[in-house]
Amino acid sequence: MNPTPHARAALATLPLSFPDPTGVVIVDGGCDWPAEVTRALRSGAAGVLVVQPKPADFAELLELDPSTAVIVDSTWASNPVIGAAAQAFQAAAADGSRLECRVILAPGSDFPTALLDQLILVRALLSPVSKVRVQYRSDHGFHAEGMTDTSMTVDLSVVCTTAVPAAATVRLLTSDGSVELLIPTGDTAEPARLTTAGPDGAVQAPTQYETGHRASLRRLRELMASGPADGLADLRQLHADVLVTRGAQRT
Amino acid sequence: MQSTIGVGFLGAGPVTQAIHLPTLARLGHEFTIRHVSDVDPAVAESVATRVGATHSSSLDALLDDPAVEVVAICSPHTFHAEQVIAACRAGKSAVLCEKPLAMSSTEADAIAAVSAETGVPIVVGAMHVFDPGWRAAVAQWGELPATSHSIRSSIVLPPNPRFEDVATEVLGRQPFPTPDRSDVEVLAAMIHAGVMGLAVHDLPLVRSLLPRYDDLRVVSAAVLAPFGYRILAVAGGKSIELHAVMSATWQPNWVLEAYANDVALRTEFTPSYVHAGSAVSTLTTAESARVFGPESFNGYESEWLELAGIVRGQIAPPDPGELVDDLRFTLALADAAAEAVRSTHNTEAAA
After folding, report:
1. B300 within 8 A of B19, measured Cβ to Cβ
2. A131, CA 20 to 30 Å: which among A98, B76, B141, B184?
3. How high is the ipTM of this complex?
4. CATH number of the domain at B129-314+328-350, out of 3.10.129.10, 3.30.360.10, 3.40.50.150, 3.20.20.80?
């Protein structure tokens, strides 16, 4: 299902932040999105939202004028829980040995995109993943192992089914507890669930009924308002994750 | 013949004390503990005294006791095979052997042979196999064994005393050794023990979802801290992920999942030792979810009740061939995981 219409609908929920929504270009990441982003930047867009981009070659795009804000609206990492979740995962990281990132998707999903979305998520929560090795792949999913820049091993997996809704689950077990995050797809406002367990009990973070698309648009608005020193920073991080994704596909 | 079935325990450690004695206390209408044997005479006497049973420190004394109709083998794994065989040859009514049934294929062959020769029923105490929350889902899972493509077992456990100490008052608990993780053979032994001691609980369930396992391949295996494993394997065209960690957490989480394109099964088991009811299984499709359990009794109680039915001739005993196949699958996985740990270590050392 194309998520771009959901992103366009989310724009209508921010009427004061974007009084002139025509200045915002929403790009479908499923097509030749680098060309579309390039056109938007050259035509003077006020801001650009790239919705769930597939892995693509866009090194030339990064050479363009960085004064325009571009935000990557990623399947999992755009969820509004990410800020609180990143704090929880980073606080537990020193005491955890291995991160698990498991994703449920519909059969027929594009695996390179699925892996890229996982890398973007792990980057947002903890640290960039600098290398990935695919351990097993079939028509029904894959298992891969990665290593973050902070030397934490990451188990990345995708299972394809229509039996349960698409979702990403991230878990970090520590010596005396855990941090667990369940993120539904960002097309509805169903909230993510962040639970931190420690010696004194378990705490669920307050739920946030906001779609990932709307959270991305708020981020775009903030970046536009700040007059970004580097409006392409999101794309630069995406590019690094695309390179890791492509490296993994070759192993 | 006694009105209740006489039970003799070989091994009176925490599993006997915290699991089987409290379970049989709930099943007094079916069983009476007649004899407790342990290599430590003081432990044997103390545990036997609690239940008014005879005690000893020898296998022969227990097998020679005519009041013992069912032999429950709860000794260290390495003694299981010889004790199962001895109990069968002693002509007992049935044998309940704690998992694993044995520690090698040779032992498995010997057990299969003696079972066929003597006709003594053998039940392996893999309690999750008997769990009513699991069995109810199995009865309704339709084509899942054929159509499932991804299987995952995840076990997170607090230290055993958290549960043992509310199930009984344990006598003679052994301290957990501190392993030398710099030695690859120690790591290989740890993951082998992890499979034979922990993954073994769910491997018969996993095998029931596999069309075959003769093509089993362990893709990766790692020992996790403080104690645990992560094993990725492939068999019968399906991926199998086994993940377990025992830590200082208070929060147990024991889940088995299986996914097909259109059906998903998730079974959440209660922790061992305590009687916290059965597992809860959920069979889900895009349209609906069916929930099975919780029942008020767990797999331990079910396995003993099934044993009673077998002894009384009301239930057919398990096929020994299936039990041996469960063991072969477990051994193959344990051996391959240990080899994968060695291989990874050697590759990293060479790099």
Report:
1. yes
2. B184
3. 0.94
4. 3.30.360.10
